C-alpha cells in the first residue's frame, strides 16, 4: 500500500467516525477565537472554555481588552498556565488590532503571525475556523499521530504539515485536522495506547511501532 492509499483509507475511517466536527474552543467571533487559541497553548481546550467566560465578561472586544491591566487579565487566565506571557500578548495584540486594523482580526497570514503570541499554528486555526481559508493546523497531537500512522517522518510540525497537505485534498484540510484531534482524544492517546486495538493504528500504523509493541 502506498502512502497516498493509506491516507485515503485513514480519511475514510475519520469521515465515518466524525461526519461532523464542532470547533472545540468556544468563541463568538474571530477575535474571541484568536484569544482562545492563544490561551490553549500548553493547556486543554476544556480548561480554556472554563476560563474564557470570565475573560469575556471583563472584555470581549480588542478596544475593551487593551484598556484592561495585564494584572487583571492574568488573574483570570492563570488556570491556563503561562499567564504572564499570555496576558501581555493578549493586551498588546488587542492594542494592535484596535490601532492598526479597526478592531478587526485581519484575514491575512503575515499580519496574524506578526501579532504577539501568535505563531503559525494559531494563525492557521484562525484562518481555517474563523475565515474558512484552507489550512492544516498541526499541533503536537496531530504531529504524533501522523508519525504513528506512517504519514510523516515526524521531524517537526512544519514538515508534518507539508506532508499532510500533500497527502490530503485541500478541501478536506479544515475539517480533517479537527477529525484527527478528536480521534486522538478518543482512540489514539499519547500514553497507554495499544496500537493493535486502535481503529487506525491496528491496520495502518507504522510497522516498526507495531512490531515493537508485539515484542
Would you mind describing this structure in some detail?
The chain has helices spanning 3-17, 30-39, 45-58, 62-65, 70-77, 83-101, 109-113, 120-129, 140-148, 157-167, 173-186, 201-204, 207-214. With 215 residues, the protein is mostly helical. The model has no long low-confidence stretch (mean pLDDT 95). It is elongated. Helix 2 runs antiparallel to helix 8 (120-129), helix 5 crosses helix 6 and helix 9 (140-148) crosses helix 10 (157-167). It has two domains: 3-21 and 137-214, Endonuclease Iii, domain 2; 30-129, Endonuclease III, domain 1 (Orthogonal Bundle), CATH 1.10.340. The chain is built from 13 helices and no strands. Residues 39-186 form the HhH-GPD domain. It catalyses: 2'-deoxyribonucleotide-(2'-deoxyribose 5'-phosphate)-2'-deoxyribonucleotide-DNA = a 3'-end 2'-deoxyribonucleotide-(2,3-dehydro-2,3-deoxyribose 5'-phosphate)-DNA + a 5'-end 5'-phospho-2'-deoxyribonucleoside-DNA + H(+). Pfam families: HhH-GPD. Its EC number is 4.2.99.18.
Number of helices in the DSSP assignment: 13
CATH architecture of the largest domain: Orthogonal Bundle
How far from one another are the termini?
Answer: 24 Å
Uncertain segments: none
CATH superfamily of the largest domain: Hypothetical protein, domain 2
| Radius of gyration, in angstroms, nearest whole number | 19 Å
Give me the count of strands: 0
Order of helices and strands: HHHHHHHHHHHHH
Protein name: Endonuclease III
Family: Belongs to the Nth/MutY family.
GO molecular function, one term: DNA binding
Pfam family, one: HhH-GPD
